[in-house]
């Protein structure tokens, strides 16, 4: 199965971008901000909240980073103008983290200030392992002044439980995901069930310490296990939410919503959709099956 997935990924990478877009459009809102607004309105109408993400990362110049910041500010303005039930997710390398840490800090601070003026929230995404320490450092710095900010942690990294124990001391708002980047076995669990077990251990730690958790998963096993943990610990609904990617396992998304749990959908959009789509396939070849389904289902 994995071999077949890898073949499908290689096949998709050979296709012209307009053809790839036919496949990718199910998992991105579109190229323009208006596309994302439309999708978020549709989700909100179903009682589902959202986080909006301007696609792009690892910029090489400060000019690119400043342009990305302007797009993030425009997203926040648009959320407020359209009264959307949504917040913003951002990638630190898109805002210059790999160029200059202080520069990135200033960029993120400006975004948080704008979000604060709208009583809105910003999620700092976690990228691959070279940026784990500096991303946590960035989060801790902005957290000293702003409480409308959260961070993502990845359950497949062996270090994450210890990171969480430290972050819990300051009352952190989390998105907990398995992790999608390809990392060496020295720092990341490779066994599927071991990642699941670590995910649940981390979730329990976060909840025991009284933190807000975005339980980000498409794994039915983790959803059911989370249901059980929430019930056993008598966790109130203002202390957690479930989170999923746009276009993935919508039946599970709708079931969680129907069960009365808050659910947030990650809504990516932008001109850099191609790199996002190909990278996601490379890092998680199982997604290739969704591409195949799209191939046989589009009109």
Report a brief summary of the structure.
With 299 residues, the protein is an alpha/beta fold.
Question: What's the arrangement of secondary structure elements?
Answer:
Blueprint: H1 2-14, H2 17-24, H3 33-45, E1 49-54, H4 62-81, E2 86-90, H5 101-117, E3 122-124, H6 132-143, E4 149-154, H7 160-167, E5 173-177, H8 192-208, E6 212-216, H9 220-232, E7 240-245, H10 250-258, E8 263-269, H11 273-283, H12 288-295
Task: Provide an overview of this structure.
The protein is of the alpha/beta class and 299 residues long. The chain has a single domain, classed as TIM Barrel (Alpha-Beta Barrel). Helices cover 50% and strands 14% of the residues. Strands 1-2-3-4-5-6-7-8 form an eight-stranded parallel β-barrel, surrounded by six helices. Strand 2, helix 5 and strand 3 (122-124) form a beta-alpha-beta unit. Helix 4 packs parallel to helix 5. The longest helix is centred in the N-terminal third of the chain and has 20 residues, at 62-81. The radius of gyration is 18 Å and the shape is globular. 39% of the residues are buried. The mean pLDDT is 91.
CA-atom Rg in angstroms: 18 Å
Helix amount: 40-55%
CATH class category label: Alpha Beta
- Low-pLDDT stretches: none
Give the neighbour order of strands across the main sheet: 1-2-3-4-5-6-7-8
Mean pLDDT: 91
- What's the domain count? 1
Which CATH architecture? Alpha-Beta Barrel
């Amino acid at each position: 199965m994995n071999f077949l997935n890898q073949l499908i990924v290689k096949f998709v990478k050979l296709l012209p971008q307009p053809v790839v877009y036919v496949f990718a459009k199910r998992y991105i809102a579109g190229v323009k901000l208006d596309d994302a607004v439309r999708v978020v309105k549709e989700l909100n109408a179903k009682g589902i909240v959202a986080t909006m993400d301007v696609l792009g990362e690892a910029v090489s110049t400060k000019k690119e980073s400043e342009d990305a910041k302007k797009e993030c500010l425009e997203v926040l303005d648009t959320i407020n103008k359209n009264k959307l039930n949504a917040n913003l997710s951002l990638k630190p390398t898109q805002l210059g983290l790999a160029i200059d840490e202080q520069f990135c800090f200033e960029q993120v601070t400006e975004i948080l200030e704008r979000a604060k003026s709208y009583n809105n929230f910003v999620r700092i995404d976690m990228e691959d392992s070279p940026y784990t320490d500096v991303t946590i450092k960035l989060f801790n710095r902005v957290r000293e002044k702003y409480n409308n900010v959260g961070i993502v942690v990845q359950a497949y990294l062996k270090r994450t439980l210890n990171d969480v124990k430290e972050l819990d001391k300051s009352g952190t708002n989390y998105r907990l995901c398995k992790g999608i980047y390809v990392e060496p076995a020295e720092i990341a669990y490779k066994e599927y069930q071991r990642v699941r077990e670590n995910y649940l251990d981390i979730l329990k730690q976060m909840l025991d310490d009284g933190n807000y958790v975005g339980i980000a998963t498409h794994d039915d096993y983790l959803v059911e296990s989370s249901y059980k943990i929430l019930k056993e610990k008598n966790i109130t609904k203002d202390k957690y939410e479930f989170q999923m990617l746009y276009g993935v396992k919508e039946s599970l998304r709708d079931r969680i919503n129907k069960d009365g749990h808050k659910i947030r959908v990650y809504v990516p959009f932008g001109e850099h959709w191609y790199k996002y789509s190909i990278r996601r396939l490379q890092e998680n070849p199982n997604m290739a099956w969704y591409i195949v389904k799209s191939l046989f289902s589009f009109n």
